[in-house]
């Protein structure tokens, strides 16, 4: 999909994702969850940040039955995200975008407690760059020193794994990408050298 802007690409891929039948979407989501569970990054992580599926994003709820993990989910607070421990059955809200969020009174997680971040994405490319939703929430968070050493996995379906995305100076590559057919470790050499 050469020469498309980020917003054109975003529109096209979200439309494609939303055209999946419920059966197809669930099947692809379950396969993706299995690929995640089979990976060492996931297996070694004790505390994982995830998301609630919105507009037919891959559904990761199958992973929540893994009770030896602590799960964190985001709340949008002004221009940033706060992360709260959440398990099925606990209280949640629905924000102004229509996205489920954990109740604000649930315990908050700090970066030092987190082992892995599952990043909702519209698309990812072979270099590990991610096309998000345009709000910049994850870009801002992952540019902060306390967050940028935590492994990140872009979560997408196969049709959103592209050769190359248009990127900006502030875009940072993810550690890995997971789809329903594969788990791709992006080279650690792409990560910035930190003192």
Descriptive account of the structure:
- This protein is an alpha/beta fold and 195 residues long.
- It has four helices and twelve strands; from the N terminus they run H-H-H-E-E-E-E-E-E-E-E-H-E-E-E-E.
- It has helices at residues 6-18, 22-37, 40-44, 137-142; strands at 47-49, 70-77, 80-85, 92-94, 100-102, 116-120, 123-125, 130-131, 152-155, 161-162, 176-178, 183-185.
- The strands form three sheets. It has a seven-stranded mixed sheet.
- The protein is globular, with a radius of gyration of 16 Å.
C-alpha Rg (nearest Å): 16 Å
How far apart are the first and last residues' alpha carbons, in Å? Answer: 38 Å
Query: What is the helix content?
Result: 10-25%
Number of helices: 4
Q: In one word, what is the shape?
A: globular
Largest sheet: 7 strands, mixed
SS-based class: alpha/beta
Unreliable runs:
189-195
How would you write the strand order of the largest sheet? Answer: 3-2-1-6-9-11-12
| Beta-strand content bin | 15-25%
Q: How many runs of DSSP E, i.e. beta strands?
A: 12
Mean pLDDT: 90
- Write the H/E string, N to C: HHHEEEEEEEEHEEEE
Give the helices and strands, then pairings.
Layout: H1 6-18, H2 22-37, H3 40-44, E1 47-49, E2 70-77, E3 80-85, E4 92-94, E5 100-102, E6 116-120, E7 123-125, E8 130-131, H4 137-142, E9 152-155, E10 161-162, E11 176-178, E12 183-185
Parallel strand pairs: 1-2, 1-6, 6-9, 7-10, 9-11
Antiparallel strand pairs: 2-3, 4-5, 7-8, 11-12
């Amino acid at each position: 999909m050469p020469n498309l802007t980020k917003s054109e690409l975003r529109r096209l891929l979200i439309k494609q994702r939303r055209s999946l039948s419920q059966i197809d979407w669930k099947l692809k989501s379950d396969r993706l969850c299995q690929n995640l569970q089979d990976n060492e990054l996931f297996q070694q992580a004790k505390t994982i940040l995830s998301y609630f599926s919105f507009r037919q994003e891959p559904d990761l709820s199958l992973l929540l039955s893994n009770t030896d993990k602590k799960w964190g989910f985001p709340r949008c607070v002004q221009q940033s995200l706060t992360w709260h421990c959440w398990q099925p059955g606990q209280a949640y809200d629905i924000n102004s975008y229509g996205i489920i969020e954990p109740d604000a009174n649930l315990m908050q997680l700090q970066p030092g407690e987190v082992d892995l971040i599952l990043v909702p994405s519209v698309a990812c490319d072979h270099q590990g760059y991610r096309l998000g939703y345009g709000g910049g929430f994850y870009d801002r968070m992952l540019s902060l020193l306390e967050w940028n050493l935590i492994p990140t996995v872009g979560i997408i379906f196969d049709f959103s794994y592209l050769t190359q995305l248009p990127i900006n100076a502030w875009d940072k590559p993810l550690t890995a990408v997971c789809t329903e057919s594969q788990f791709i470790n992006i080279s650690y050499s792409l990560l910035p050298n930190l003192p």
